[in-house]
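Predict structure. Chain length: 526.
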Amino acid sequence: MDTTPSYDELVARVGALQSEARRLRMAEEAFHRQNASLQALHETSLGLIAKLDKEELLENILERAASLSGTTHGYIYLLEVGQDSMQMVVGKGFFKSQLGRRVAIGQGMGGWVWQTEKPVVVEDYKSWHGRIADKVLDGLRSIVGIPLKNDLQVLGVIGLAHVEMDRQFSSEDITTLERFAALALIALEKSRLYADVRYELAERKRTESILRESEERYRTFLESSPDPIVVYDMQGIATYVNPAFEQTFHLSRDELLGKQIDFVPEENWPETKEAIGRMQSGQKINLFETRRLTKEGKILDVQLSSTLYTDSDGQPLGNIVTLRDISARKKAEEELDRYRGLLEVLVAERTTELAQANHQLEQEIEERRRAEKALKKREQELEAQSHHLEEVNTALRVLLRQREVDKKELGEIVMRNIQELVSPYLQRIMNGRLDNRQRTLAKIVDTNLNDIISPFVNKMASGLTHLTPVEIRVASLIKEGKTNKEIAEVLLVSKNTILFHRYNIRDKLGLKNQKINLRSHLMAME
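Prediction complete.
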Protein backbone atom coordinates (compact mmCIF):
# COMPACT_ATOMS: atom_id res chain seq x y z
CA MET A 1 0.00 0.00 0.00
CA ASP A 2 1.35 3.44 -1.08
CA THR A 3 1.76 5.79 2.04
CA THR A 4 3.31 8.73 0.22
CA PRO A 5 1.26 11.88 1.06
CA SER A 6 -0.34 13.71 -1.73
CA TYR A 7 0.60 17.20 -2.79
CA ASP A 8 -2.45 18.69 -1.18
CA GLU A 9 -1.67 16.95 2.06
CA LEU A 10 1.89 18.25 1.93
CA VAL A 11 0.62 21.77 1.30
CA ALA A 12 -1.78 21.46 4.23
CA ARG A 13 1.00 20.17 6.52
CA VAL A 14 3.32 22.99 5.44
CA GLY A 15 0.53 25.52 6.09
CA ALA A 16 -0.06 24.02 9.55
CA LEU A 17 3.65 24.10 10.31
CA GLN A 18 3.86 27.75 9.18
CA SER A 19 0.88 28.66 11.35
CA GLU A 20 2.45 26.93 14.32
CA ALA A 21 5.74 28.66 13.57
CA ARG A 22 3.98 32.06 13.45
CA ARG A 23 2.16 31.28 16.72
CA LEU A 24 5.40 30.27 18.37
CA ARG A 25 7.10 33.35 16.97
CA MET A 26 4.27 35.62 18.27
CA ALA A 27 4.38 33.85 21.63
CA GLU A 28 8.14 34.33 21.71
CA GLU A 29 7.73 38.00 20.79
CA ALA A 30 5.03 38.43 23.48
CA PHE A 31 7.33 36.67 25.94
CA HIS A 32 10.20 38.93 24.98
CA ARG A 33 7.93 42.00 25.23
CA GLN A 34 6.61 40.88 28.61
CA ASN A 35 10.14 40.11 29.75
CA ALA A 36 11.26 43.54 28.53
CA SER A 37 8.26 45.12 30.21
CA LEU A 38 8.99 43.34 33.49
CA GLN A 39 12.63 44.30 33.18
CA ALA A 40 11.59 47.90 32.52
CA LEU A 41 9.19 47.78 35.47
CA HIS A 42 11.92 46.41 37.68
CA GLU A 43 14.35 49.07 36.63
CA THR A 44 11.61 51.70 36.93
CA SER A 45 10.64 50.55 40.42
CA LEU A 46 14.27 50.72 41.54
CA GLY A 47 14.63 54.18 40.01
CA LEU A 48 11.34 55.44 41.47
CA ILE A 49 11.90 54.08 44.96
CA ALA A 50 15.27 55.84 45.03
CA LYS A 51 13.53 59.20 44.50
CA LEU A 52 12.60 61.12 47.64
CA ASP A 53 11.64 64.56 46.37
CA LYS A 54 7.94 64.49 45.49
CA GLU A 55 8.06 66.92 42.56
CA GLU A 56 11.04 65.15 40.97
CA LEU A 57 9.37 61.77 41.62
CA LEU A 58 6.13 62.79 39.89
CA GLU A 59 8.00 64.02 36.83
CA ASN A 60 9.99 60.76 36.75
CA ILE A 61 6.82 58.67 37.08
CA LEU A 62 5.18 60.48 34.17
CA GLU A 63 8.32 60.22 32.04
CA ARG A 64 8.64 56.45 32.61
CA ALA A 65 4.90 55.82 32.10
CA ALA A 66 5.04 57.67 28.77
CA SER A 67 8.15 55.69 27.80
CA LEU A 68 6.46 52.36 28.63
CA SER A 69 3.41 53.20 26.50
CA GLY A 70 5.34 54.76 23.62
CA THR A 71 3.93 58.29 23.79
CA THR A 72 5.17 61.79 24.61
CA HIS A 73 1.88 63.14 25.95
CA GLY A 74 0.74 62.55 29.53
CA TYR A 75 -0.31 64.01 32.89
CA ILE A 76 -0.82 63.15 36.54
CA TYR A 77 -3.79 64.30 38.62
CA LEU A 78 -3.48 64.23 42.42
CA LEU A 79 -6.14 64.52 45.12
CA GLU A 80 -5.15 66.74 48.05
CA VAL A 81 -6.44 65.95 51.55
CA GLY A 82 -9.77 67.63 52.23
CA GLN A 83 -10.31 68.69 48.59
CA ASP A 84 -13.31 67.78 46.40
CA SER A 85 -11.38 68.01 43.11
CA MET A 86 -8.16 66.67 41.58
CA GLN A 87 -5.47 68.99 40.20
CA MET A 88 -3.07 68.34 37.32
CA VAL A 89 0.34 68.65 38.99
CA VAL A 90 2.58 67.28 36.20
CA GLY A 91 2.14 67.41 32.43
CA LYS A 92 4.23 66.82 29.33
CA GLY A 93 3.76 67.19 25.61
CA PHE A 94 0.16 68.15 24.83
CA PHE A 95 -0.67 68.56 28.53
CA LYS A 96 2.22 70.81 29.51
CA SER A 97 0.01 73.87 28.98
CA GLN A 98 -2.81 72.33 31.07
CA LEU A 99 -0.99 72.37 34.43
CA GLY A 100 -3.26 73.47 37.28
CA ARG A 101 -6.48 72.22 35.64
CA ARG A 102 -8.95 70.80 38.14
CA VAL A 103 -11.57 68.09 37.62
CA ALA A 104 -14.40 66.95 39.86
CA ILE A 105 -15.35 63.32 40.27
CA GLY A 106 -16.92 62.04 37.02
CA GLN A 107 -15.58 65.02 34.97
CA GLY A 108 -13.38 64.22 31.97
CA MET A 109 -10.96 61.29 31.82
CA GLY A 110 -9.40 62.03 35.23
CA GLY A 111 -12.80 62.40 36.94
CA TRP A 112 -14.17 59.28 35.24
CA VAL A 113 -11.23 57.11 36.37
CA TRP A 114 -11.64 58.63 39.86
CA GLN A 115 -15.29 57.63 39.89
CA THR A 116 -14.95 54.09 38.39
CA GLU A 117 -11.63 53.36 40.20
CA LYS A 118 -10.60 51.32 37.10
CA PRO A 119 -8.47 51.93 34.01
CA VAL A 120 -10.40 53.71 31.25
CA VAL A 121 -9.46 53.67 27.54
CA VAL A 122 -11.04 55.99 24.97
CA GLU A 123 -10.22 55.47 21.29
CA ASP A 124 -11.26 58.97 20.15
CA TYR A 125 -11.42 61.61 22.89
CA LYS A 126 -12.87 64.23 20.57
CA SER A 127 -16.10 62.26 20.09
CA TRP A 128 -16.23 60.77 23.62
CA HIS A 129 -19.42 61.67 25.53
CA GLY A 130 -17.59 62.16 28.83
CA ARG A 131 -14.97 64.60 27.53
CA ILE A 132 -14.37 68.12 28.92
CA ALA A 133 -16.00 70.71 26.66
CA ASP A 134 -12.82 72.64 25.87
CA LYS A 135 -11.74 73.23 22.27
CA VAL A 136 -8.12 73.09 23.39
CA LEU A 137 -8.60 69.33 23.91
CA ASP A 138 -9.94 68.66 20.39
CA GLY A 139 -6.47 67.54 19.26
CA LEU A 140 -6.55 64.42 21.48
CA ARG A 141 -7.25 61.01 19.95
CA SER A 142 -6.64 57.78 21.88
CA ILE A 143 -6.32 58.36 25.66
CA VAL A 144 -5.98 56.09 28.68
CA GLY A 145 -6.37 56.79 32.41
CA ILE A 146 -4.84 54.57 35.14
CA PRO A 147 -5.94 55.07 38.80
CA LEU A 148 -3.37 55.49 41.57
CA LYS A 149 -5.42 53.61 44.18
CA ASN A 150 -4.62 52.25 47.62
CA ASP A 151 -6.87 50.00 49.70
CA LEU A 152 -9.20 52.88 50.58
CA GLN A 153 -9.50 55.35 47.72
CA VAL A 154 -8.15 56.75 44.48
CA LEU A 155 -5.33 59.18 45.26
CA GLY A 156 -4.61 60.23 41.69
CA VAL A 157 -4.75 59.40 38.00
CA ILE A 158 -2.01 58.82 35.41
CA GLY A 159 -3.22 59.87 31.95
CA LEU A 160 -1.48 59.09 28.63
CA ALA A 161 -2.60 60.05 25.14
CA HIS A 162 -1.86 59.85 21.40
CA VAL A 163 -2.59 62.73 19.07
CA GLU A 164 -2.11 60.59 15.93
CA MET A 165 -5.19 58.97 14.34
CA ASP A 166 -3.55 55.51 13.85
CA ARG A 167 -2.10 55.14 17.36
CA GLN A 168 -3.98 53.14 20.03
CA PHE A 169 -3.24 51.69 23.47
CA SER A 170 -3.15 47.86 23.57
CA SER A 171 -4.25 45.58 26.38
CA GLU A 172 -0.58 44.86 27.09
CA ASP A 173 -0.03 48.64 27.53
CA ILE A 174 -2.93 48.76 30.01
CA THR A 175 -1.57 45.77 31.98
CA THR A 176 1.94 47.26 32.04
CA LEU A 177 0.61 50.66 33.12
CA GLU A 178 -1.49 49.07 35.90
CA ARG A 179 1.60 47.32 37.27
CA PHE A 180 3.56 50.53 36.87
CA ALA A 181 0.85 52.51 38.70
CA ALA A 182 1.11 50.11 41.66
CA LEU A 183 4.87 50.67 41.80
CA ALA A 184 4.42 54.43 41.38
CA LEU A 185 1.94 54.48 44.26
CA ILE A 186 4.48 52.69 46.46
CA ALA A 187 7.11 55.26 45.49
CA LEU A 188 4.71 58.13 46.17
CA GLU A 189 3.79 56.63 49.54
CA LYS A 190 7.48 56.31 50.34
CA SER A 191 8.04 59.92 49.32
CA ARG A 192 5.10 61.02 51.47
CA LEU A 193 6.40 59.03 54.45
CA TYR A 194 9.86 60.50 53.91
CA ALA A 195 8.38 64.00 53.76
CA ASP A 196 6.35 63.31 56.91
CA VAL A 197 9.44 61.99 58.69
CA ARG A 198 11.49 64.93 57.51
CA TYR A 199 8.75 67.33 58.65
CA GLU A 200 8.48 65.54 61.98
CA LEU A 201 12.26 65.71 62.43
CA ALA A 202 12.21 69.41 61.52
CA GLU A 203 9.37 69.99 63.96
CA ARG A 204 11.21 68.05 66.64
CA LYS A 205 14.36 70.07 66.06
CA ARG A 206 12.34 73.27 66.09
CA THR A 207 10.60 72.17 69.30
CA GLU A 208 13.92 71.25 70.87
CA SER A 209 15.32 74.61 69.81
CA ILE A 210 12.30 76.38 71.28
CA LEU A 211 12.68 74.38 74.48
CA ARG A 212 16.37 75.23 74.68
CA GLU A 213 15.59 78.90 74.06
CA SER A 214 12.80 78.75 76.64
CA GLU A 215 15.09 77.09 79.17
CA GLU A 216 17.79 79.66 78.42
CA ARG A 217 15.32 82.53 78.85
CA TYR A 218 14.03 80.92 82.05
CA ARG A 219 17.55 80.50 83.40
CA THR A 220 18.53 84.02 82.31
CA PHE A 221 15.43 85.37 84.04
CA LEU A 222 16.22 83.49 87.23
CA GLU A 223 19.89 84.42 87.18
CA SER A 224 19.21 88.12 86.51
CA SER A 225 16.26 88.49 88.88
CA PRO A 226 16.98 91.02 91.64
CA ASP A 227 14.77 89.01 94.01
CA PRO A 228 16.04 85.84 95.74
CA ILE A 229 14.63 82.66 94.11
CA VAL A 230 14.91 79.08 95.38
CA VAL A 231 13.55 75.88 93.80
CA TYR A 232 12.59 72.96 96.06
CA ASP A 233 11.61 69.39 95.25
CA MET A 234 8.59 67.85 96.96
CA GLN A 235 10.77 66.78 99.94
CA GLY A 236 11.85 70.38 100.56
CA ILE A 237 15.40 69.89 99.21
CA ALA A 238 16.84 72.93 97.45
CA THR A 239 17.68 72.14 93.81
CA TYR A 240 18.45 75.67 92.63
CA VAL A 241 19.17 79.13 94.06
CA ASN A 242 19.90 82.25 92.04
CA PRO A 243 22.71 84.76 92.68
CA ALA A 244 20.31 87.20 94.38
CA PHE A 245 19.50 84.50 96.98
CA GLU A 246 23.21 84.03 97.73
CA GLN A 247 23.78 87.79 98.02
CA THR A 248 20.74 88.43 100.22
CA PHE A 249 21.23 85.62 102.74
CA HIS A 250 25.06 85.40 102.44
CA LEU A 251 24.85 81.65 101.67
CA SER A 252 26.66 79.98 98.75
CA ARG A 253 25.14 77.38 96.45
CA ASP A 254 27.48 74.72 97.83
CA GLU A 255 25.98 75.33 101.26
CA LEU A 256 22.40 75.20 99.96
CA LEU A 257 21.92 72.75 97.05
CA GLY A 258 20.84 69.24 97.97
CA LYS A 259 19.87 70.30 101.50
CA GLN A 260 16.95 71.73 103.41
CA ILE A 261 17.59 75.43 104.05
CA ASP A 262 17.36 76.30 107.73
CA PHE A 263 16.66 80.02 107.66
CA VAL A 264 13.18 80.27 109.25
CA PRO A 265 13.10 82.00 112.70
CA GLU A 266 11.52 79.87 115.42
CA GLU A 267 8.63 82.28 115.96
CA ASN A 268 7.76 82.22 112.23
CA TRP A 269 7.57 78.43 111.84
CA PRO A 270 3.81 78.08 112.53
CA GLU A 271 2.78 80.50 109.75
CA THR A 272 5.42 79.01 107.41
CA LYS A 273 4.12 75.43 107.94
CA GLU A 274 0.58 76.62 107.28
CA ALA A 275 1.71 78.30 104.04
CA ILE A 276 3.57 75.11 102.96
CA GLY A 277 0.40 73.09 103.56
CA ARG A 278 -1.67 75.44 101.42
CA MET A 279 0.95 75.32 98.68
CA GLN A 280 1.06 71.50 98.67
CA SER A 281 -2.74 71.40 98.41
CA GLY A 282 -2.49 73.30 95.14
CA GLN A 283 -2.99 76.84 96.34
CA LYS A 284 -0.70 79.60 95.14
CA ILE A 285 1.03 81.62 97.83
CA ASN A 286 1.15 85.24 96.79
CA LEU A 287 2.87 88.14 98.64
CA PHE A 288 2.94 86.32 101.99
CA GLU A 289 4.83 88.49 104.52
CA THR A 290 7.09 86.69 107.01
CA ARG A 291 10.69 86.78 108.24
CA ARG A 292 13.89 84.88 107.36
CA LEU A 293 17.45 84.64 108.76
CA THR A 294 20.75 85.44 107.05
CA LYS A 295 23.89 83.38 107.63
CA GLU A 296 24.95 85.86 110.35
CA GLY A 297 21.58 85.52 112.14
CA LYS A 298 20.21 88.88 110.98
CA ILE A 299 16.42 88.85 110.64
CA LEU A 300 15.02 90.13 107.36
CA ASP A 301 11.41 91.03 106.68
CA VAL A 302 10.50 89.29 103.40
CA GLN A 303 7.56 89.03 101.04
CA LEU A 304 7.17 85.47 99.75
CA SER A 305 5.39 84.03 96.70
CA SER A 306 5.32 80.31 95.89
CA THR A 307 3.83 78.05 93.22
CA LEU A 308 4.05 74.35 92.30
CA TYR A 309 5.56 73.16 89.02
CA THR A 310 4.51 69.83 87.46
CA ASP A 311 5.66 67.27 84.90
CA SER A 312 3.96 66.55 81.56
CA ASP A 313 1.40 64.36 83.33
CA GLY A 314 0.46 67.10 85.77
CA GLN A 315 2.20 65.49 88.73
CA PRO A 316 3.86 68.03 91.09
CA LEU A 317 7.65 67.97 91.00
CA GLY A 318 8.40 70.77 93.39
CA ASN A 319 7.80 74.44 94.02
CA ILE A 320 9.42 77.73 93.09
CA VAL A 321 9.72 80.31 95.86
CA THR A 322 10.41 83.99 95.19
CA LEU A 323 11.38 86.20 98.12
CA ARG A 324 11.72 89.95 98.34
CA ASP A 325 13.60 91.77 101.09
CA ILE A 326 11.17 94.35 102.45
CA SER A 327 13.14 95.28 105.55
CA ALA A 328 13.79 98.77 104.21
CA ARG A 329 10.11 99.12 103.34
CA LYS A 330 9.10 97.95 106.82
CA LYS A 331 11.46 100.47 108.37
CA ALA A 332 10.06 103.14 106.10
CA GLU A 333 6.53 102.14 107.13
CA GLU A 334 7.50 102.50 110.80
CA GLU A 335 8.95 105.92 110.08
CA LEU A 336 5.82 106.71 108.15
CA ASP A 337 3.65 105.69 111.12
CA ARG A 338 5.72 107.95 113.36
CA TYR A 339 5.40 110.82 110.95
CA ARG A 340 1.71 110.03 110.55
CA GLY A 341 1.30 110.50 114.33
CA LEU A 342 3.13 113.84 114.16
CA LEU A 343 1.03 114.78 111.18
CA GLU A 344 -2.17 114.01 113.07
CA VAL A 345 -1.04 116.38 115.83
CA LEU A 346 -0.22 119.04 113.25
CA VAL A 347 -3.56 118.42 111.56
CA ALA A 348 -5.37 118.85 114.87
CA GLU A 349 -3.56 122.14 115.48
CA ARG A 350 -4.21 123.25 111.96
CA THR A 351 -7.85 122.27 112.33
CA THR A 352 -8.17 124.57 115.34
CA GLU A 353 -6.56 127.40 113.39
CA LEU A 354 -8.88 126.70 110.47
CA ALA A 355 -11.88 126.73 112.79
CA GLN A 356 -10.83 130.16 114.06
CA ALA A 357 -10.22 131.34 110.54
CA ASN A 358 -13.63 129.98 109.51
CA HIS A 359 -15.26 131.90 112.35
CA GLN A 360 -13.50 135.10 111.28
CA LEU A 361 -14.45 134.39 107.70
CA GLU A 362 -18.09 133.92 108.70
CA GLN A 363 -18.01 137.32 110.38
CA GLU A 364 -16.50 138.86 107.28
CA ILE A 365 -19.14 137.16 105.16
CA GLU A 366 -21.87 138.56 107.40
CA GLU A 367 -20.36 142.06 107.12
CA ARG A 368 -20.24 141.61 103.38
CA ARG A 369 -23.86 140.53 103.32
CA ARG A 370 -24.85 143.68 105.21
CA ALA A 371 -22.77 145.79 102.84
CA GLU A 372 -24.36 144.07 99.87
CA LYS A 373 -27.81 144.70 101.36
CA ALA A 374 -26.99 148.39 101.79
CA LEU A 375 -25.56 148.51 98.31
CA LYS A 376 -28.67 146.90 96.92
CA LYS A 377 -30.80 149.49 98.71
CA ARG A 378 -28.62 152.25 97.26
CA GLU A 379 -28.96 150.71 93.82
CA GLN A 380 -32.72 150.75 94.22
CA GLU A 381 -32.59 154.44 95.19
CA LEU A 382 -30.34 155.21 92.21
CA GLU A 383 -32.67 153.26 89.99
CA ALA A 384 -35.59 155.39 91.26
CA GLN A 385 -33.54 158.56 90.65
CA SER A 386 -32.66 157.30 87.17
CA HIS A 387 -36.32 156.71 86.46
CA HIS A 388 -37.10 160.24 87.70
CA LEU A 389 -34.36 161.69 85.49
CA GLU A 390 -35.74 159.82 82.52
CA GLU A 391 -39.13 161.38 83.19
CA VAL A 392 -37.51 164.86 83.51
CA ASN A 393 -35.61 164.30 80.26
CA THR A 394 -38.81 163.31 78.57
CA ALA A 395 -40.46 166.52 79.82
CA LEU A 396 -37.45 168.59 78.65
CA ARG A 397 -37.61 167.00 75.22
CA VAL A 398 -41.29 167.90 75.05
CA LEU A 399 -40.47 171.49 76.13
CA LEU A 400 -37.66 171.74 73.55
CA ARG A 401 -39.99 170.59 70.83
CA GLN A 402 -42.54 173.15 72.01
CA ARG A 403 -39.81 175.83 72.04
CA GLU A 404 -38.96 175.04 68.44
CA VAL A 405 -42.61 175.31 67.54
CA ASP A 406 -42.89 178.62 69.41
CA LYS A 407 -39.73 179.89 67.77
CA LYS A 408 -41.10 179.02 64.37
CA GLU A 409 -44.39 180.71 65.15
CA LEU A 410 -42.53 183.81 66.44
CA GLY A 411 -40.45 183.96 63.25
CA GLU A 412 -43.60 183.77 61.15
CA ILE A 413 -45.21 186.59 63.19
CA VAL A 414 -42.10 188.81 62.87
CA MET A 415 -41.88 188.14 59.14
CA ARG A 416 -45.57 188.86 58.65
CA ASN A 417 -45.38 192.11 60.71
CA ILE A 418 -42.33 193.36 58.79
CA GLN A 419 -43.96 192.55 55.48
CA GLU A 420 -47.24 194.23 56.49
CA LEU A 421 -46.10 197.10 58.72
CA VAL A 422 -42.51 198.00 57.63
CA SER A 423 -41.86 197.00 54.05
CA PRO A 424 -44.70 199.06 52.49
CA TYR A 425 -43.56 202.30 54.16
CA LEU A 426 -39.88 201.66 53.41
CA GLN A 427 -40.77 201.15 49.78
CA ARG A 428 -42.61 204.49 49.71
CA ILE A 429 -39.52 206.20 51.20
CA MET A 430 -37.27 204.67 48.56
CA ASN A 431 -39.64 205.88 45.83
CA GLY A 432 -39.44 209.46 47.16
CA ARG A 433 -36.87 212.18 46.45
CA LEU A 434 -33.61 210.88 47.99
CA ASP A 435 -30.02 211.55 47.14
CA ASN A 436 -27.69 208.71 46.30
CA ARG A 437 -26.42 208.22 49.82
CA GLN A 438 -29.96 208.21 51.29
CA ARG A 439 -31.14 205.87 48.57
CA THR A 440 -28.22 203.54 49.25
CA LEU A 441 -28.95 203.53 53.00
CA ALA A 442 -32.63 202.87 52.34
CA LYS A 443 -31.75 200.01 50.04
CA ILE A 444 -29.41 198.57 52.72
CA VAL A 445 -32.24 198.77 55.25
CA ASP A 446 -34.56 196.93 52.84
CA THR A 447 -31.96 194.28 52.13
CA ASN A 448 -31.22 193.73 55.81
CA LEU A 449 -34.91 193.46 56.59
CA ASN A 450 -35.23 190.81 53.89
CA ASP A 451 -32.22 189.00 55.32
CA ILE A 452 -33.74 189.11 58.78
CA ILE A 453 -36.86 187.37 57.61
CA SER A 454 -35.00 184.88 55.33
CA PRO A 455 -33.09 181.65 56.22
CA PHE A 456 -29.80 183.40 55.32
CA VAL A 457 -29.85 185.34 58.53
CA ASN A 458 -29.37 182.20 60.60
CA LYS A 459 -26.63 180.91 58.28
CA MET A 460 -24.95 184.28 57.98
CA ALA A 461 -25.13 184.96 61.68
CA SER A 462 -23.81 181.50 62.53
CA GLY A 463 -20.89 181.96 60.13
CA LEU A 464 -20.04 185.55 61.25
CA THR A 465 -20.53 185.37 65.00
CA HIS A 466 -16.82 186.07 65.55
CA LEU A 467 -16.94 189.38 63.49
CA THR A 468 -17.47 192.79 64.98
CA PRO A 469 -20.71 194.66 64.16
CA VAL A 470 -18.82 197.00 61.75
CA GLU A 471 -17.18 193.96 60.07
CA ILE A 472 -20.62 192.36 59.74
CA ARG A 473 -21.96 195.52 57.99
CA VAL A 474 -18.91 195.62 55.70
CA ALA A 475 -19.34 191.91 54.88
CA SER A 476 -23.03 192.49 54.08
CA LEU A 477 -22.18 195.35 51.66
CA ILE A 478 -19.41 193.23 50.03
CA LYS A 479 -21.99 190.46 49.48
CA GLU A 480 -24.24 193.10 47.80
CA GLY A 481 -21.45 193.76 45.32
CA LYS A 482 -20.48 197.25 46.56
CA THR A 483 -16.96 198.53 45.88
CA ASN A 484 -14.62 199.75 48.59
CA LYS A 485 -15.35 203.36 47.66
CA GLU A 486 -19.15 202.84 47.73
CA ILE A 487 -18.90 201.09 51.11
CA ALA A 488 -16.78 203.97 52.47
CA GLU A 489 -19.36 206.54 51.30
CA VAL A 490 -22.24 204.55 52.84
CA LEU A 491 -20.49 204.06 56.20
CA LEU A 492 -18.95 207.58 56.16
CA VAL A 493 -15.39 206.22 56.62
CA SER A 494 -12.26 206.31 54.56
CA LYS A 495 -11.42 203.76 51.89
CA ASN A 496 -8.36 202.60 53.88
CA THR A 497 -10.64 201.79 56.82
CA ILE A 498 -12.72 199.57 54.52
CA LEU A 499 -9.53 197.84 53.31
CA PHE A 500 -8.52 197.27 56.94
CA HIS A 501 -11.93 195.68 57.69
CA ARG A 502 -11.73 193.51 54.54
CA TYR A 503 -8.31 192.26 55.68
CA ASN A 504 -9.71 191.33 59.16
CA ILE A 505 -12.74 189.61 57.62
CA ARG A 506 -10.55 187.43 55.33
CA ASP A 507 -8.30 186.59 58.27
CA LYS A 508 -11.23 185.58 60.53
CA LEU A 509 -12.84 183.53 57.73
CA GLY A 510 -9.55 181.65 57.08
CA LEU A 511 -9.00 183.21 53.64
CA LYS A 512 -5.73 184.97 54.44
CA ASN A 513 -3.12 184.56 51.69
CA GLN A 514 -5.61 182.58 49.57
CA LYS A 515 -6.75 183.52 46.08
CA ILE A 516 -10.47 183.24 46.91
CA ASN A 517 -13.01 185.94 46.11
CA LEU A 518 -14.45 187.27 49.38
CA ARG A 519 -17.90 188.10 47.88
CA SER A 520 -18.19 184.59 46.36
CA HIS A 521 -17.25 183.03 49.69
CA LEU A 522 -19.85 185.12 51.60
CA MET A 523 -22.54 184.21 49.07
CA ALA A 524 -21.57 180.54 49.34
CA MET A 525 -22.17 180.72 53.09
CA GLU A 526 -25.90 181.01 52.36
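Summary: The longest strand covers residues 299-310.
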